[in-house]
Amino acid sequence: MTIHITKALLPLWLALLLVLRASANEDVAIAFLTDCSMYSDWQTVAMAFSYKMTEQPGSIKRVMCCTDQERQRYNDQLLGLMPTHVAPSFAINPRTGDNYAAYNKPGAVVDWMARSYPEEHWVLILDSDMLLRNKFHPNNYNTSRGWAASAPYTYLIGSANELWTRHIPYIPARNDTLAGPYGRHADQVGGFFFMHRDDMQKVAPLWLSTTEEVREDPEAWRLSGDQYVQKGGKPWISEMYGYVFGAAKAGVWHRWHKSTMLYPSYSPPGIPKVMHYGLLFSIDDYKFDKHWHFDFDVTVCPPWDSPIHQHSRAGIFEPPPWPKDLRSYKRKGRGGGGEYYRDLLSLETITTLNAAFCDFHLRHCPPSQQLLDVCTMAVTQYTEVQWEVQDEELHYRCKDTEPRCRMWAKAGECDKNVAYMNENCREACGLCSHLSETTPRPAPSETFQMLQKLASTLGVEMPVHSPDNPSVFMPGG
Fold first, then answer.
1. Which residues of the chain have pLDDT under 70?
2. Cα–Cα distance, 20 to 452 (Å, whole number)
3. CATH of 27-172+183-261 given 3.90.550, 3.30.1490, 3.30.70, 1.20.1260
């Protein structure tokens, strides 16, 4: 079919093409870095589920570093969890013999960029112990070629002390505080990296080579700020310096985004897009640490431990409290709303993990009553937490997450830089009246449908779970 465009319609067609091209250019390629271990498998299940729930435009790919022996032993069924790029293991440095697992992080990115260059213009690098909870859009971060977004890692003191002189002596001092103090020679960033793919292609090999340089630096132990390294030892955080020094070498600089990534139980400065569950955290008397679950096997079907407990090795993790059982819920009407939102984000982390595991089990396990009971509870709890989070965020969005918001607003940035200011300076720009426009995250409708199908197969009614009718699989049940 031939489409004839009149001269009068030509400007409209050109405008439409520009809009479509701009939209495509905002898609994001997410690289999620893992190894071949059982520990990484349950984290991958969780990331795949959280990605689906955010509806992030673009693509996601697990970049998985494996030795030849690990790859031969790996369960190929698990390669279907999400699109996967298998990279070689970089953990043992071929030149120095240094056995350092963190070499895999830059090594994985180098291999991925070399052998599977992303179609999307923007790249987001995430660790294995992270969950997505909101979309990333380049316009919300003022990202461009040469300018990336990341989280503040202020303990990287080597960007401003003698360490930089040993590795990047030719980099001039920075005269801004966008990602660290005045006078630094590298940015103090980490956690996530969001940048143009061309910049990542430049940074990645320098990230890897500079990591080796810092690991082999005999003075790095005293200059890095690593609290755990012994005198004369090799700092564990060498890879972090490899990144920031490598980025400086590549001419890529960063802006801190303090609210984008949050550790559970930390007070949120804004609405996070990523939860990083890398540390032990508590919600009232409930505690969780990912390091308790190296032997958790997400592929095991029922029967599971009953009740589920803190050190269960299959099924789901120990369920946390329900929202209305939190101490902060009872205080939220008396000025404790911030504490309640903080605790909800911690709850959301655990309930997302458990809902993700159940989504996986419902797709791969044979019908059983325990599967129905445990997963109905887990998915119901996840959904209730989502409703509570959404309600709190309607109020939480009426905040400025940058101290310079009012200054920028007076300078006209609310109109000149709409996407960024709408994301970070809603109060200063007078946008709080539009809170009802917040788009709710999708419910796990596919997971609910699988539960309903399972109940029908078993010939039983769907169990009912709520704080007033707890499951027998709840703690103490």
1. 1-24, 333-337, 396, 433-442, 465-477
2. 39
3. 3.90.550
